[in-house]
Protein: Acetylornithine aminotransferase
Amino acid sequence: MLTRVVRSSLLPSLQRPASLVGTKITGRTMSSSSLSTTEQLQSFGERHVTKGIGRIAPGVMKKAEGSYVEYLDGKRMLDFTCGIGVTNLGHCHPKVSKAAAEQCMQLVHGQCSISFHEPYLRLIEKLLPIMPHPSLDSFFFWNSGSEAVEAALKMARATTGRQNIICMQGGYHGRTFGAMAVTRSKTGYSEGFHPLMPGVFVTPYPFWHQLGLSPSTPTQTLTQLALNQLHLLLQQQTSPSDTAAIIIEPVLGEGGYVPAPKEFLVGLREVCDEYGILLIVDEVQSGFGRTGAWWAIEGSESVEGDYEGSSSSGSGDGGAVRPDILVMAKGLANGFPLSGVVSRKEVTDKLKPGSMGGTYAGNAVSCAAACAVIDAMEEERVLENVKERSKHLLTSLHALQSDPALAPYILDVRGRGLMVAVEFASPAPLGGGWDPVYQNQDTGKPIPPNLATRVAKKCIEKGLLLLTTSVYEVVRFIPALNIGQGEMERGVGVFEDSLREVVGGWEGEGK
Structure:
């Protein structure tokens, strides 16, 4: 009886006519018309969006096109973040948006456990020719990079019969539970969520700063040190017979945009081949043209940004080090939620039906968008543009590093293609005085604290969206892959002005 009374009392209020919309119901206003200004929307978001999400810039985005984002207050920003490496073809690319819109009128949700749907299969057809190795021929699509990493970890454990996973110091793979366990770029992603997934072991990545060496340390030395530690790990902490996979980003993302030396990747492949360990290559951020090739694993790149492949043990055509499992997302569908896990059929045939799946996995609209992305990348010769714009960006940043007025503040300029970073000096090294990089640092200049954050904030004030990354003082450049020369020049100019203003102001204060 009580249930009937409650339901009866609710019906009139839930079925109010349109003329009454906007009146209060149990203390809440049904109308959204009161949110009429940017300030009101901003305040509404700050009140109702979880505090667990951080933002780098105030305001409410309204629309975007190409390399620009427009806010509700009319402000127009040059976007050097691309939604953290997602809108590789720029915002709202017409071919991609058109393909998605057309697919919306045919099939929006074709659940992968019911039947195949055409965009899913068409996407595989387009991906097969651009895989970094011909052995990668079995696909599973999901929604996000984290989910794809989860699937890769499950696949490695299930198909090898082993539990342990080796990840890289400084690596980032996501915020879901398994992905979070193999993420070691900073503690902020896992703080308060322990205990994490067991069976995870960490090995050094060949990054000079994490190894306590100078930026000029030869890559051969970095590789030797890192591989030596990996072999020790396999003898001291996780036996090869217990180790299912090694997971690596070929270019560290949240760890500071650090490309892995080719010889290190070859060394990993040799270790995996020797012990029957699977090599998981996470190309969520570095893949789909970001580094000047379809996949960062495909080759090496010089400081000036010229891409060049090289033959090596475990390589396929073009010099790619062969992954056993390749993970992709972000630029795959240019903003539509889609990720992918690719392996060899001989590996995936060991999986039981039903062990993979998901309600929205491989959404038809997202798959149609991804097909259009591949077409546009090829038709518009986007990879060639990446190489040209990369030369411009890296040359400009190296010029700043060579400027006597700025040199004391810049430790390193690094990256591949349009995945580029600048690492600044810091007056407060991690671990106090224990960091040998800072012990040996004699700039002769007062270094501002939090320099990366200061510069990024100043860039945002001047109309350029720019992100920081890693536990060190690093800013990262992630512009659209089809960015024009003028837009690149403008972005670099804003960065230079911001950097000079920040350090000049600090010096002017007599710090």
About this structure: Residues 304 and 332 are 26 Å apart (CA to CA).
